Amino acid sequence: MLNYILLSFALVTNLFANPTEKSIKSEIKEVTVFQNSAQINEKSSISIGAGETILTIKGKSPYIDSKSIQVKGFGDFTILSVNVQSNYLEEKISNSLDSLQSILDDEKITLQKLDAQAEVLQEKMAVLNTNKNLGGQNNGLSMIQLKQALDFYEKEISSIKNDEILNRQKSNQSKEKIQRLEMQLNESSNKPIVPVNDIIIKVSADKQVSGELAISYLVNNAGWFPKYDVRAKDISKPLDLRYKAEVWQNTGNDWNNVKLKFSNATPQKSGVIPDLKKWDLTYARLTVFDQNNYRNIGSVNGIITDSNGQAIPGANITVKGSSIGTTSDLNGRYSLTLPSSAQRLIYSFIGYRSKEFAISGDLMNVILEEDMQVLNEAVITGYGGLEGRAPRLSVRNSNASKSNLVESFDLETTTIENQTTVEIAVDKPYTITSNGDKLLVDLKKYEVDAVYEYFAIPKKEKDAFLVAKLVDWEKYNLLQGEANLYFEDTYIGRTILEAESLNDTLSISLGRDRSIVIEREKIDQSSTKRLIGSNYTETRAYKITVKNNKSSNINLKILDQYPISIVNDISVNLLKSSNGNVNKETGIIDWELKLSAGEQKVLELEYEVKYPKREKVILDR
């Protein structure tokens, strides 16, 4: 009876015993990078005793999306709850301050050595000055001895003086460097403290057991942008298309030797073809000018700084509503090629308030303001919420996490098509440090059959653009992105690969060709204005001259337009179009020309507009 009571007491005591606390390590094994975030997949080996154990993984990124964390167990144990909490007591994950302090300490030691060297040089000069009374007062020296002594002193003093000059130069440089380092260190130290995150996992086991944990979560302050190299040898050969990912991360944790997946889930003059929109003609008082309809801002650049004027490296710049974007460099500078539909840019960086601006020109400098509350929230989450309400997840197969997959040596990357997304898995492991630097990762290389055609809108641009048209481009799973253009092994600029297009044919602009000369001029003698009764009748006439100065034949497509009336009192009549293809709904006319080497052709466009004399219309634009 006594033994039974003691056993029952032991069981009750064990039931209410405090859980064992244990700190464990985990490694990042795989990262799926999205446009503006990344999913981190980690693995951890554990060994726990009987009863409940609280496992803590310290020093994780402060930018974890707490609602996204998932933990799976492999072994004879049960996961009770998963929490994430901010930790202000741990050292910052980023070692930038430690690195600056280390450089500063080394430079101070260098300065101390230079000061010691200066003292030695002073002592040497003092010794020479003390013994400059050659031979004493009573001992005469021969001329040869005197000359030798003078040569010796001259040589030594000159050497000391030269060393002193060099020492002062080095000392001044060292002092200036120390001053700069101290200013930078002070600037960095005064920034808000960024806490790390600790992942706390509560588990239970009936006995001593070993196993593994698979942890995954979403983290911000990371992303990738699609980039392309488009190479064309000549217009008789296929196009060489190289698909790349410009990946960056400033999460606070380095990604060391990890497998990467990229998901599509969420010079100065550009090579971007301008866009020609429908021209709605109405009365002048009702006319609204869309500046973006008339200005072809092909690219934008600038500097991103904080409110103190300090450059912000690694800031994110994206074209609103697209996958086009870039990040600022170490000096806060950025440069971005724009699609023709671009209207607004979004500037963001962790710890700062995001800003959105309309694209106002090719130079846009932006100041971001610090957001002190962004990182000051402690979070708790898990399977459904707080401890006690989380479901019990038990896995009994200790070999479930072992993989027998052999790395592929045939393909550089593997494309995985899910139900709604496409992922590109890179077979080669990469290391990406948490410093915001951009790293280009090769994804795919395609040799694509293309039809080459020249394209021009002389109303907007006098230059002709070489366009490569790709058929069945959907099978390549491309995203809208910037592309570097190479023609005949020469870099010719940048353009936008419009992979978001719904067209069956994907057109890639290969830049401008100055060998095709195009002039569009207004014919004044044919542009008239007459009052007939209660209506004005105005006529506009234009002549488009095209000459092929290339040594080969070309196909050239030219676009122009006449206005379309949206008011009953205004009528538009197209008089001349040189047999062009006319779209009466949009008012756009296109001519498909075949020009031999050295050939010149002239196109004519003329239209007539009738409107009430009490109103005005704007026809010259």
Number of distinct helices: 4
Largest sheet: 7 strands, mixed
CATH topology of the domain at 517-612: Immunoglobulin-like
- Rounded to the nearest angstrom, the radius of gyration is 36 Å
> CATH class of the domain at 517-612, please?
Mainly Beta
Q: How much helix is in the residues?
A: 10-25%
- What overall geometry do the principal axes of the alpha carbons give? extended
The largest beta-sheet arranges its strands as 5-8-3-2-11-22-21
Distance between the termini: 105 Å
Strand content: 35-45%
Instruction: Give a count of the beta strands, DSSP E runs of length 2 or more.
Output: 37
CATH architecture of the domain at 517-612: Sandwich
Mean pLDDT: 80
As residue ranges, the low-confidence spans are: 4-16, 375-411
The secondary structure category is: alpha+beta
Coiled coil: 97-191
Organism: Belliella calami
Domain DUF4140: 31-128
Keywords: Coiled coil
